[in-house]
Every structure is written in structure tokens, then in C-alpha cells.
Predict the 3D structure of the following.
Amino acid sequence: MGWLSRRSSASRAPSLPSPSPPLDVRNAELLSLAAKGDEHGVARLLDGHADLHAAGEFGRSPLHEAAIHGREGVVRLLLARNARIQAKCRNGYSALHEAAVNGRLGTIALLLESDADVRARNIYGSLPLHEAAVNGHAGAVEMLLNAKSDIQAKSTNGYSSLHRAAYLGHVHAVELLLRAKADVHAEDDVRAHMRLPMHSCQRLLIFVHWHRAICLVKRVDPAASYLAAYVFKALGTKR
């Protein structure tokens, strides 16, 4: 019986290597691993001919996914493999837009070092600077200003970076924009709602005063006091 078993085992067809998964499955996995920051997994899939420029949800590429989540190692790897740094997803966001939206400073630095376009606009006419400002990422605002992004540029509806940061009360982003000479007299292009940055700054002033009051109660000395001076100076008013 043992001999028959051995013979039966020996007579089996040799095992074949498992077939590679379909390309669309590999591409989906590539997008997922890029978002997770799995450098080894991304390299393995690219070596297995997964598409470096595969488009996932909303047309985002692996580089977009890595930029969104701040996966600097994967960003570096994809750029080394010649990922299209200026590529845009369906809503016109580049990888630099995505990094700016999420305040991924290390990723922004990598993209800027690789000549990402600070002038790129999404379908709303917004620059990466607009996206950093509206989300209150002061560090990203500073980096993009240093990279010569256009501080006076307006989106499709005419909003500047200062409009956006001031309206939402992003104090430190407003301070940086004011120091860089953002135009406080610029008007938006929506005729029914003409809104100057100074009007947005009125909302900011309420925030500044509230913040200062809270800090006085806590006996803390924050930056709100000198920031208020910046805003009042820009408005041409007195405290």
C-alpha cells in the first residue's frame, strides 16, 4: 500500500506556479498600498507590471493616493519610477493639490523639489495655495509662498487665498498671507455677493478677540494680540 501511495504521489503532474492576478486587480492593490505607505508592496507590484498611472476612485493615481496620506517613502519611490507629477484626477487636483489640502508638509517638499507646478489649477480654478489656505495649513501656505505661488491669484469664483483663510478664521494662515502682501482690497467675481477680504477679516477679528479673551482667562500670552494688529492695520482701522 505504501508503494502504491508513493507511486501515486510520484505520478502526479508537477505543480505549476500560481498565475498572476489580473492586471486590474494588481492596479487596485497598487492604489491601496500606495495609500497605506507600503513601499515594498508598491515596488513589487510595479515590478510585476502594475500600471504606475492606474486611475482609481475619482481618477486618482498612486501618486495622488500617496500624497493625500503623506506617504513620503512611496511618493519618493513613485517619482523615481517616473510617475507623472503634474497629472490631475477628475476634479483637476494634482498631487501637490492633494498634499496641500491635507497639510502634508514632507510630501509638499518632495513634490516641490521635483518641480511640481505651483500654478496648476483644479476645475474650480484653485491653486494648491488656495487649498492650503482654506484648510488652515499655515506650514503649507508658507512653503507654497516660498515656492513663488501667486498670492493674488483668484479661483473661478474670484476668491483669493486671503478670502478663504480669513473667512474661515485661519489666523496663522492669514498672518502669513498679510506678511506676504496679499491684497486686502481684492473683490471676488460673484456679483450678487461682492465680498472683500476685509469683510472676511471682520469675521476673523471676532475670532481673534474671542481667542484673546480665552487666553486672558487662562493667563496665557499667545500670538493673537500682534496678529490683531496686523489685521487692523490691513483694514486701516484702530483697535
Summary: Confidence is low (pLDDT under 50) at residues 1-14, 212-221.
